[in-house]
Amino acid sequence: MATEKRLKASNKQAGRKIGGTVGIFLFLTVLGLFMAGPIYLAVVTSIKPVEELFIFPPKLYAMNPTLDNYSDMFSVLSEMWVPFSRYVFNSVFVTVVVTVSQCFCASMAAFCLAKCRFPGNAILNKIIVTALLYNSNVIYIMQYMVMAQLGMINKMSALILPSIASAMGLFLMRQSMSQVPDAMIEAAKVDGANMFTTCWKIVMPNQKPALMTMSIFAFQGAWNIQGGSLVYDEALKTLPTVVQQAAAAGLARAGVAMAAAVFMLIPPVVFFMLAQKNVIETMAHSGIKD
């Protein structure tokens, strides 16, 4: 009897585990479909001919798919004051500089906040946590005034420098570095390593998951920088600004705007896939124990 009760109890537990797993799978499937919906609509709209854009109610598929919107996109953007390649270069340049600079600055500052003891350390950490509550739009006016005083308006630095400082990236790296055992830091000091060497040769090689995660957010944010109110020169504008101008032309240009949006979606997706692979491999094979 006792054996039968144990078997029944184990079967109930197994059934609950299977039911919970199925429930989680269904929930994640619905959530994934919900998140993939806008991407699907953008791709479908980008391959719709102009006459299908005026159909009401709108169709969730293209009846006569075409790639004319992509060819029209390059022709429309090529007719602007500056070549399309210039907008691409501006976006790539800003994205690379912001991503690299943000990762470098956040890593250095996070190491000091996590592993260095100095007066005001606790206050600075609290300020960083508080800064996570504020959106960049809240300080936009003050930021614009500071950049105007520094003579940064209508320069590429107006798009780059404000984006280098990231409270989220700094908080993420600080939390990750806080898990590094202090014994490793002390051993490096005993071996004669200075703070810079300890940071980049001892701590940073073990921070790839956090670093790759921060680089994904930095790349995505930098790639979507518009800065239309900071940069007026057409030769300094980025792709998001040009896409916004194309979308403002009306419903007739909706297909062209969606084609440009799909074109802009490719680099972040590719970068995410490459960085995600490194994050998963590092988290699967890394582990620091004191």
Give a structural overview.
- The chain is mostly helical.
- The chain is built from 12 helices and no strands.
- It has helices spanning 2-46, 68-78, 84-115, 121-131, 140-149, 157-164, 167-177, 182-190, 195-203, 208-223, 239-247, 254-285.
- Helix 2 (68-78) packs across helix 12 and helix 3 (84-115) packs across helix 7.
- The two termini are 48 Å apart.
- The model is unreliable at 282-290 (pLDDT under 50).
- Report the major sheet: none
Shape: globular
**Low-confidence segments, ≥5 residues, pLDDT <50?**
282-290
H/E element order: HHHHHHHHHHHH
**If you compute it from the alpha carbons, what radius of gyration comes out, rounded to the nearest whole angstrom?**
25 Å
Total of DSSP H or I helical runs spanning 4+ residues: 12
Strand proportion, as a percent range, falls in under 5%
Keyword list:
290 residues, mainly alpha, 70% helix
Outline of the structure:
70% of the residues lie in helices and 0% in strands.
